[in-house]
From TrEMBL:
Residues 4-213 form the TOG domain. This is TOG domain-containing protein. The keyword Transmembrane does not apply. GO terms for cellular component: cytoskeleton. The lineage of its organism: Eukaryota, Sar, Stramenopiles, Ochrophyta, Raphidophyceae. Keywords: Cytoplasm, Cytoskeleton. One of its GO terms (biological process) is establishment or maintenance of microtubule cytoskeleton polarity. It is found in: Cytoplasm, Cytoskeleton. It comes from Heterosigma akashiwo. GO terms for molecular function: microtubule plus end polymerase; microtubule plus-end binding.
């Protein structure tokens, strides 16, 4: 009947039936919710399924999968090793999806940053997200810089890459109005953390029209 799982969890995680996959994702979520040891063997046993969850063709199953990834990032000591694999997929598949899924994708990205340092994830968010051709994605990615700053503070942020490395300036000059608005908000928040002087060169280099924006 309903809720009665048949067969090994590994097989059900890879089932061709999305309802069975979703139920397996939810079962894995409950399993990891009850794990308190960062090196628990169940992480290595099932982490092969994480990228497949993000690529799940069914929106409802994929959203359940993003919750599993968030839990994995919170509980598993090895989570930072998955940043490179998972972040670009979450950007591409999750951030442009329906609102609930996009919010779950943002939560997963922030949790992966927390598991490691935000640097690696934010570099990927900048490289892959701001260059995305899907119009919804670049503004959300620019906004994630502000959310990461609020969550982790400037000492944890790639401030040098944002300023000297040109990331903030590129956001100000981006073709998307949403990205430019996020850059403006990020600028204001960074001033609170590091003062105006380090940000001056970015501001001076911008077109005067943008300074008045």
């Amino acid at each position: 009947g309903d809720g009665e799982a048949a067969g090994p969890l590994g097989d059900r995680l890879a089932s061709k039936d999305w309802k069975e996959r979703k139920a397996a994702y939810e079962e894995l979520l409950r399993m990891w919710d009850g794990v308190y040891e960062p090196g628990d063997p169940s992480f290595a046993e099932f982490d092969w399924a994480l990228d497949k969850m993000v690529k799940d063709a069914n929106a409802s199953a994929m959203e359940a999968g993003l919750a599993v990834i968030t839990m994995y990032a919170e509980k598993c000591g090895n989570a930072p090793s998955k940043t490179e694999l998972l972040v670009p997929l979450i950007i591409e598949k999750g951030l442009g999806a329906r609102p609930g899924t996009a919010a779950a994708a943002e939560g997963a990205l922030l949790k992966l940053m927390e598991a490691d340092t935000p640097h690696a994830a934010l570099a990927l968010i900048y490289e892959k997200g701001l260059a995305s051709k899907k119009p919804k994605i670049p503004p959300v990615c620019a906004g994630l810089y502000g959310k990461a700053l609020a969550a982790f503070g400037a000492p944890a942020m790639p401030v040098r890459e944002l300023l000297a490395g040109g990331r903030l300036r590129a956001m100000f000059e981006h073709g998307s109005a949403g990205v430019r608005a996020a850059a403006q908000a990020l600028y204001v928040d960074l001033v609170r953390w590091v003062g105006e002087a380090p940000l001056r060169p970015v501001f001076d280099g911008l077109k005067s029209a943008q300074q008045k924006a």
